[in-house]
Amino acid sequence: MFTDNPFAGLSASVSPMIMQAYVVVMIILVVGGTLYDIQHKRSAHYFFRIWRSAIGAGKRQVTDGEVLSRAIQAVGEGLVSGEFCNARRRIAHLLTMYGFLAYAITTVIMVFWYATPSPPTPTLLPLLWHIGALMVCAGGYWFWFFLRIDVTAEGHSPLRIVQADLFILSLLASTTMALIWSFLQAADSAWANVALGLYVAATTVLFGAVPWSKFSHMFYKPAAALQRRLEEANGSRKNLPFPTSKPEIFGSARKAPRNY
Asked: pLDDT per residue over 160-181, tens digit each?
């Protein structure tokens, strides 16, 4: 199972061109959905307005070298999910992020270059595809049942679902059904086609519901991280005071927050 390309096996009943066209449509849905989300929510307008305000309120001029340095720091912070202080949330986020990247990239490679049994698929590609899906499941289910703020901090049921959960649930459904489909296909089970249908449905929701889910946030976060670092560099800080090096503690020692 882990070394078999499930898309090559699918080519016996589904044309590789259909699989490739589906992947192209999903990419178009992501791009179009993100652009619609930006236009509908006026995210770009808000970002540039805040950017100009921060420049105007800055106490010093930031050089081009500092901008480049801060951009590199923002990228590095994103690669290690440095915005999370809680180690468990960071690990869960890293598992999900890098698992999704491995899952999505290897899907594209196998569908466009190894969609048939000939030429044979390098063993590494389906291995990374399965490992990526497992990483998403590990990080996603850990987050869903044990790390969500509305569950751990607000006492809601882990089964409570709101629109903000659309992204994580569709992502988990896609990767879970991908693994089940691959297993059933390798076992030559009659249920493989049912799992395939559910896999396609979940994946279509994942990429087609971008304007209504948090999918596009992965594109906003790097820009927001860079803006925050430039505000720190020019001294504007949204007019907030600088943090004190020796915060005063009142009352008894607090329990460290588990959610953020």
From this structure: 788 888 999 999 999 999 999 9
Q: How many CB atoms lie within 10 A of CB 105?
A: 14
At 222, the amino acid letter reads P
Q: What is the CA radius of gyration of the chain?
A: 22
pLDDT digits (tens, 9 = 90+) for 76-122: 776 676 666 678 888 999 999 999 999 999 999 999 999 999 999 99
> Long-range pairs for 52-56 at CB < 8 Å and ≥24 separation?
53/236, 54/227, 54/230, 54/231, 54/234, 54/236, 54/238, 55/234, 55/236
Count Cβ atoms within 10 A of the Cβ of residue 57 and give its class: 0-12 exposed, 13-18 middle, 19 or more buried: middle
* pLDDT tens-digit readout, 37-87: 878 776 666 666 766 676 666 667 777 777 677 777 777 776 676 666 678
User: Which pTM was predicted?
Assistant: 0.80
Taking a C-beta distance cutoff of 8 angstroms, is the pair 175, 133 a contact?
yes
Residue 244 CA from chain centroid, whole number: 34
What CA–CA distance (Å, rounded) separates 8 from 197? 17
Torsion of CA 101, 106, 108, 109, to 10 degrees: 140
